[in-house]
Amino acid sequence: SDSKSVQCYGRKKTATAVAHCKAGKGLIRLNGSPIELVEPDVLKFKVYEPILRVGSDKFANVDIRIRVKGGGHTSQIYAIRQALAKSIVAYYQKYVDEASKNELKQIFLQYDRTLLVADPRRCEPKKFGGAGARARYQKSYR
Q: Digits of tens for pLDDT over the chain (142 positions)?
C-alpha cells in the first residue's frame, strides 16, 4: 500500500504487541476495540502514558492498530505501551523528521522504564530437587 505506515512490536515476558502505525486521524485501536476499553482499569493509565508524555497532538495524524497476544494482563499492558511508543518514534523517523523523532525519543527515554527498551527478564525454568527455580526442598538431619 502506498499510505505511510510502519510496524513495531513491544515485548514484556511472553506478551508480544504488534503496532501498525499509519497516516490517519488519531485512531488507536487494540485488538480491534478502542483503547479506552483496556482491562484491568488500574493499568489503563499505563497504556495512555506514551500518549500523555508527548501530548496527544503527536498522535492526532496517525492511526495505530495494535494486536497483542501471550502473557498475562499486566505484561500485555507493558507490551502495548512499548509498541505504542516505538511505533510513534519509528513513524516520525520515517515520515516526519529526525529532529522531532529525537525529541520524542528523548521524552520517552527520560521517562523511560521500558518505553523503548525491552526488558529482557524471562521466567527461569524449574530444576529438580526443589519446588521452583531457586528454592530447594527442606532437608532434615534426623
A: 567 888 998 999 999 999 988 888 888 888 888 888 887 788 888 888 888 888 888 888 888 899 999 989 889 999 988 998 888 888 888 888 888 888 888 888 888 778 888 888 988 999 999 999 999 999 999 8
The pTM score is 0.82
- The three-state DSSP-derived secondary structure of the chain is CCCCEEEEEEEECCEEEEEEEEECCCCEEECCEEHHHCCCHHHHHHHHHHHHHHCHHHHCCEEEEEEEECCCHHHHHHHHHHHHHHHHHHHHHHHCCHHHHHHHHHHHHHHCCCCCCCECCCCCCCCCCCCCCCCCCCCCCC
Spell out the residues 6+ positions from residue 44 whose beta carbon is closer than 8 angstroms to its own: 36, 38
